[in-house]
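Late entry, evening session. Most of the bench is empty. Finally got around to the prediction I had been postponing all week. Sequence below, unchanged from the version circulated by S.P.
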Amino acid sequence: MKHQIRSSLGGPLFLSAMAVQFLISTSTFMLFTALPLYFQTQGAPKTVAGLSTTLFAIAALLARPLGGVLFDRYDRTLVFHLGVGTLIGATSLMALPAGIPYLLTCRLLQGVGFSLFTTGMGVLLPDFVPQGRVLQAIAIQGLVASLGPALGGPLAVQLLPAGFELVVVTSTLIGIAGMALAVPTFPRTPSSRDGEGSASSQDLPHRLWSRLFHKEALAPSAFALLLGLSYGAALTFIPGYALTRGIPNGGLFFTSFTLAVVLTRLFFGKVQGDLSLLTSGSFIVSGISFLLLIPLSGYLHLLVSGFLYGAGYGVAFPILNTGALMSAAHHRRGAAASTFFTAMDAGVATGSLAAGGIAQMCGFPAVYLTLGIGLLGGGAALLLPEVRGARFLRTLD
């Protein structure tokens, strides 16, 4: 069976897919920024602000394994549209006048929808482009996705003084536009079960594990977990931390972040060979960016930190993501994507919750010190001989 529906990176199909990515990301990340700030204005403790991101990530985390199975066994496009509809529907429900528990429940539904959306993009995207351009395509997708926090974050901060409901309505309308564009963009792409083989000789736990997760994707997923820890803390607390330092619009951190991602992604058309040094350096730069946040003193300081974080994250994420996806056969790509994004979600959930607890007890500087040291450690680990020879890096040669 033919699975590939190839398009050049400048072709209308790929560009339309990127437009869907941009609209859904912008819609989603408006709430990532606005909801913690809204909770803070309502007098809620920092742990509740962190919980708004944690519950989203936990729901996405729990939905990932099932999503991987659905994408591998059923019509991938149908599952993808189901995820987008769930995400935007849950966003619209947040406009209803209700309390914090209700909003947190909506965040759970958003997490489920977002997990299906992001897993679906990872599963479907390699079918859109020539085989040798997958890394570049995923780099471009990550670039477009990063425009979500860059635009959605500052936009949410600007709209929030006029009312949280206005933020929700705007986010919903942007999401509906993305959902409408997704219908003609993604044609029916049924999955293949060829090569699954018989599992009758395996014990049940092993069969369940192999169905939900992909072994070859575990190594890049471990480093994705560390990236997720930093990303969850950044999304949830940097705008609030900036306010405590006399910086009204901390969302500009993500604008600088995006600029760096744009610049780093320009190099991915010619990336080849041993990527371990490049990936290690990206973790080290990300670690330095968090250490620079400790003495945050103004907008320039904030923008420099955001730029460095974007440069590190912008290099590391597409390499790890592509390594996880391309280590799997086509019929197991759903499990590989699920494994990778499960790790990322676990990091976001743990990072935002732990950062909230640390900030409550020790203050924000302790959060960024901890994350900075952790990312530097990840950069050092990528230089170990065992990691440098790992398959997920060799598959990109």
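Two things to note before I forget:
The chain has a mean pLDDT of 82.
The chain is about 75% helix and 0% strand.
Will write this up properly tomorrow.
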